[in-house]
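sry for the spam today, last one i promise. struct tokens for design, 346 residues
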């Protein structure tokens, strides 16, 4: 009987490293989009979870990878998820079970029936072997991620939670690529408004446009919050102080262009609208100003809206938002956000 628990070679390319150490090459199953789950090994990295399409990695022999959230650098094997480690253990146990059965059968010379008769005279005996049930191998359970992007530097196809910053493959800052992808979703919805109007009616189409307005304000706010937080951290500000600023000063002021400019100026000493024409900023203010009555008053003009945006709209009438208005606001917002990102993180 051989002392090796596992057969060397085979589909897992098993190698005996000496003693009780073995190496195996266990392919990880991908999701329906061809992506494999990864997880940052740092305990304090949140959310830490992402996916990559290994077929789009241009340097398969690359030994280092990056966390898209905290840019932790580790060996490419260091980003395995808990489920993948469990799956690899299941595979190894199944392989061990099969190899132990093989060793026992070979040691006693058992045939395919797992039985052998010893002696043909007055005294004879039969040796039989009943192997245990083969261990079950369960595929890794992984989460679905909706935000997928292609790195503009190395073309890695990957998916993340929220607005990540770094490419897991090349480590470049691709934050604005994620931002552009979010706005691209809104543009796609807007491009389908005419069809929805024809198929489902005017009110459905109007709600689609109103939802797009809410989305672009939310994206603008989320990006500014992310950029401010990252910049303050880079400056060495303690987390407790950062949270105090967001709680007491930022609040929801990034939903308004004027308020956002005041916060960025006071906290980062940057003129948020430096790269924009004043007329474009006024247009953005008017468009963003429609969000509040749409969100909180079913799109009906109230006195607060009239006083806030100095609008000539009549109280009690419904606000009208058109796709071109949203598209123009996206273009202006992207210009502002690209400028700020470039200024803070050149």
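last one done:
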């Amino acid at each position: 009987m051989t002392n090796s628990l596992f057969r060397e070679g085979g589909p897992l390319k098993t190698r005996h490293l000496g003693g009780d150490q073995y190496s195996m090459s266990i392919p990880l199953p991908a999701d329906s989009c061809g992506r494999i789950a990864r997880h940052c090994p740092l305990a304090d990295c949140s959310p830490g979870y992402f996916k990559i399409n290994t077929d789009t990695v241009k340097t398969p022999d690359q030994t280092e990878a990056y966390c898209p959230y905290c840019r932790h650098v580790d060996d490419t094997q260091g980003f395995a998820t808990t489920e993948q480690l469990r799956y690899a253990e299941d595979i190894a146990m199944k392989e061990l079970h099969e190899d132990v059965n093989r060793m026992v059968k070979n040691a006693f010379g058992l045939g395919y029936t797992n039985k052998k008769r010893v002696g043909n005279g007055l005294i004879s005996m039969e040796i039989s072997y009943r192997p245990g049930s083969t261990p079950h191998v369960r595929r890794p359970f992984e989460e679905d991620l909706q935000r997928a992007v292609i790195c503009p530097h190395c073309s890695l196809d990957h998916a993340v939670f929220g607005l990540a910053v770094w490419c897991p493959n090349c480590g470049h800052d691709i934050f604005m690529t994620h931002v552009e992808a979010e706005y691209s979703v809104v543009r796609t919805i807007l491009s389908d408004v005419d069809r929805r109007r024809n198929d489902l009616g005017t009110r459905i189409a109007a709600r689609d446009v109103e939802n797009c307005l809410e989305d672009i304000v939310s994206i603008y706010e989320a990006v500014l919050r992310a950029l401010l937080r990252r910049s303050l951290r880079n400056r060495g500000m303690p987390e407790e102080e950062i949270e105090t600023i967001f709680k007491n000063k930022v609040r929801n002021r990034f939903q308004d262009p004027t308020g956002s400019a005041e916060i960025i100026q006071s906290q980062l000493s940057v003129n948020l609208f430096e790269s924009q024409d004043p007329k474009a900023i006024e247009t953005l203010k008017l468009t963003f100003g429609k969000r509040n009555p749409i969100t909180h008053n079913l799109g009906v003009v109230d006195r607060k809206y009239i006083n806030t945006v100095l609008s000539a709209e009549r109280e009690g009438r419904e606000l009208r938002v058109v796709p071109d208005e949203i598209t123009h606001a996206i273009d202006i917002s992207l210009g502002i956000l690209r400028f700020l990102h470039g200024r803070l993180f050149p």
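The mean pLDDT is 87. ok im logging off now
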